[in-house]
Amino acid sequence: MNLHRLTAAEWRADARRWRLGDEQQQAVVREICRRVKSEGDLALFELSRRFDGWAPGAGEPLALGRPAMEAALAGLPAPERAALVLAAERIRAFSTAERHLDVEGPEGLRLLVRPVRRAGLYVPGGRVPYPSTVLMTAIPARVAGVGEVWLATPPAADGSIAPAVLAAAALAGVDLVFRMGGAQAIAAFAYGTSSVPRVDMIAGPGNVYVTLAKKEVFGEVGVDGLAGPTEVVIVADGTAAAELVAADLASQMEHDPMVWALLLTDSAALIDAVEEAMVDLVPTLERREVVERATCRLVLVPSLEEALALADDFAPEHLQLVGEQAERLVDRVENAGAVFLGPHTPVSLGDYVIGPNHTLPTGGSARFSSPLGVHTFLKRRSVARVEPVKLEALVPTAATLARMEGLTAHAHAIELRAP
């Protein structure tokens, strides 16, 4: 097991971050994007056959519409359908609460907030379906007021899409589900092809090739961020339950071998207990091989204040605060994608049904970016009207600033309107 005990100083020296692809991966993605941009469907379908194992044949649609989604929802077992419905309700309620409103400023100034026209959402595929990611991406887009919401996800070799994904798309209000994955899906959304209309914003997580493609097309289209492997940092005192801490660390480690899982505590006894609990737990897990390859560090710190400072420096995707000091510490957190407070709020619960989004900044980007949400799909623009009574006071200052910058035509246009 990739489990190590460290001091705070050792952790500062050991901390490493995921890097977005190597030169070979970047070159592959650039070529994929170039081909889709220049060749359209011809390249998209060829690349889909190569990487997804499926592409539409003659007369076969690339995208599935609402009837296929509604049929999948109706066909789900009742407990699964009920789980998706409850999760969708809570995500929609939280998204509605964060919807930005137009703002009236002083003296004829307004801030207008409007949605993008088209959003392209990416949901990973592969060995398991991710209906929760469908809900977490599509519901905020709909609440934002996006006119057309499309989703791309890799199909199975027969062209089918997991019923759970289609069912979640039905509940979330997705218009079309495109059976395409990888960098070619991102390029198709960004540039448009005969089968895939161009979008204004691309959102949703994916593997390194998807993420590199989002980076490649940024500027042609908006993107929500560049997501890397999952990260969880748990800050806990000696009252925390070791079994729960171990379970929460392992729950995130099962995502990917590149995951970072970190415990920061001022209790040596808790580290002993968590290490023992991990040794007992991991062999019982279904995804044991993945968990064993992920990175887990148990770090002893002099104080919880030092723990919080280390957490802020790391700026994790997920931050859990556990123990008697949790309430005292929460307002002091500066950098984290999402904070989970107390022993009854595990990150894995937040992945599904709490309500806030599970698509979060990774790789330290919580220092400057935010979770996916309604705001991801909104644009802001200012509207200004200066009345003559206010113009007289503004002209000298504006003209002076224009001349300071050597822009005398600016000054002329301003002074021409002076009373």
What is the element layout, followed by pairings?
Elements: E1 3-7, H1 8-14, H2 23-39, H3 41-51, E2 63-64, H4 66-75, H5 78-97, E3 103-104, E4 109-115, E5 118-122, H6 131-144, E6 148-153, H7 163-172, E7 176-179, H8 182-191, E8 201-203, H9 208-217, E9 222-223, E10 231-236, H10 242-253, E11 260-265, H11 268-281, H12 288-293, E12 295-300, H13 304-314, E13 318-322, H14 326-330, E14 338-341, H15 347-350, E15 378-384, H16 388-404, H17 408-415
Helix pairs in contact: 2-3, 2-8, 2-9, 3-8, 4-7, 5-6, 5-7, 6-7, 8-9, 10-11, 16-17
CATH topology of the largest domain: Rossmann fold
Q: Strand order within the widest sheet?
A: 1-12-11-10-13-14
Query: How many separate helices?
Result: 17
Low-confidence blocks of residues = none
Shape: globular
Tell me the name of the CATH homologous superfamily of the largest domain.
Answer: Nitrogenase molybdenum iron protein domain
Tell me the radius of gyration. 25 Å
Mean pLDDT: 94
Q: Give a short account of the largest sheet.
A: 6 strands, parallel
The amount of helix comes to 40-55%
Give the termini distance in whole angstroms. Answer: 77 Å
Name given to the CATH architecture of the largest domain: 3-Layer(aba) Sandwich
**Secondary-structure-derived class:** alpha/beta
Proportion of strand residues: 15-25%
- Number of individual domains: 3
Assembly category: single chain
